[in-house]
Known about the structure:
It contains four helices and eleven strands; from the N terminus they run βββββαβαβαββαββ. The chain is α/β, with parallel strands linked by helices.
Amino acid sequence: MGSSSRYLDEFTSICLVRTGSWLNVPRDNPLSTQSSIRVEDLDKQPMVTFGEHDHLHRRFMEACSQKSIRPEITTISDANLVISVAKPKKALFFDFPAGIWGDVREKSAGRTAGEERAGDDDRITLPLELSDDDDEVIGTFIVRRRNVQLPAPAATLWKWLVNALSVSESPGEGASSIERSVER
């Protein structure tokens, strides 16, 4: 699922979607006027996140530590509670850009993509610049542990995915040649 290419060294991976990192920000937060957010902007900012077992949270905390930034993690929650906990606290939280997650949200609400979401006009989703490393990929990967033989059904599925997606496997080097990028 969602991860950073830096955590996939022991896996063979195929990047399905390169999303980058995004934060959902209350519009009354001064950060909401920026075109993107740098890690340095997040010192003492209230955040709700998924916790230490989540790759994005781990990558975010590493980036903050490297720059001596200390966001105010108000709550560690699972994905289902993040939004409901963050909104009343006016906290920031990780989000997907409209081109990835928004289409699903819009269709489930009976709206077309880009149409304003009720109750969301007090928040904005902005790109988060986690790293200066252009080779790092944040996205959704399918992975399999290297040097481990897959059971026959899993091996068949893996081969089908590689062929169907017309990609070569990337043994521990981050993203392979299939990437659906999200424009920033």
